[in-house]
Write a structure and sequence with these properties.
This protein is of the alpha/beta class. The chain is built from ten helices and ten strands. 38% of the residues lie in helices and 20% in strands. Strands 7-6-5-9-8-10 form a six-stranded parallel sheet, sandwiched between helices. Strands 1-4-2-3 form a four-stranded mixed sheet. α2 links the parallel β2 and β3 (44-47). The longest helix is centred in the C-terminal third of the chain and has 18 residues, at 217-234.
Length: 235
């Protein structure tokens, strides 16, 4: 479920399959808005304010909601879409705002796809969708039942597995993160699973002052993903 004109326009621009649109009865220009969307989809409904507000996910909804069919990527689909480029792997992340921010940042940094390991929060929840903005429609997303399957897929794609942890002396800027990298980001409280760390090709850390023992997961992911752009610009 997505809310607001901007997200709906993004979904249409990405040729997403929109199943229905709901417009609140007090929406400004409701008649013209319904006619506009009826040119794309026949299932457009006007709802009374109380009914609309009961299904809206935001406290100050813009007054328009759409139901969008999720894209379902098989391993072959994902491999084809991400055969060239970097991918992000989310291991049991829980904060929905962080997840959405990482998806959006991944696209901005030129990453091609996301592997979501079981135990991670719902990447299609309204909060993630809002934080990810239109990136949720454009990024290839593959769901992995466990770490072993995720590693199998990554190895088959020929990516270099980069894990983030404290048990290393290697700083992230001392490693080539430009191309064909699978960057692993772990749970906010517990970090990456030991299995993922053990099977990684390189373990890296972000250096910090001794008074700080951790960074927000989305911030850390952003620093690491943008290293690929910095290295490319550097030449």
């Amino acid at each position: 479920m997505i809310e607001g004109n901007n997200l709906i326009e993004e979904a249409l621009g990405c040729s997403m399959d929109i199943e229905a649109i709901f417009v609140r009865e007090d929406y400004e220009g409701i008649d013209s808005k319904i006619k506009e969307y009826e040119s794309f989809i026949s299932e457009v409904y006007a709802l009374g304010k109380s009914l609309f507000d009961s299904i809206a996910q935001t406290e100050t909804s813009q007054g328009i909601i759409a139901i969008v069919k999720k894209k379902d990527y098989t391993q072959d689909d994902f491999t084809r879409c991400c055969k060239s480029g970097n991918i992000l792997v989310l291991d049991r992340l829980q904060d929905l705002g962080n997840i959405g921010t990482m998806i959006r940042t991944a696209e901005a940094a030129g990453y091609k796809g996301i592997v979501v390991i079981k135990g991670t929060g719902d990447v299609f929840s309204p909060k993630v969708v809002r934080a990810a903005a239109g990136s949720i429609f454009r990024m290839s997303i593959l769901f992995a039942d466990d770490a072993e399957y995720a590693i199998t897929v990554i190895r088959a794609m020929g990516k270099k597995i980069i894990s983030t942890c404290f048990e290393t002396e290697i700083n992230y800027f001392d490693v080539d993160l430009q191309n064909e990298v699978a960057l692993l980001i772990g749970n906010e409280g517990g970090g990456l699973s030991p299995e993922l760390i053990d099977k990684s090709d390189v373990k890296v850390k972000i250096p910090m002052e001794v008074s700080v023992n951790s960074l927000n997961a989305a911030v850390a992911a952003g620093i690491l993903m943008y290293e690929s752009i910095r290295e490319k610009k550097k030449g």
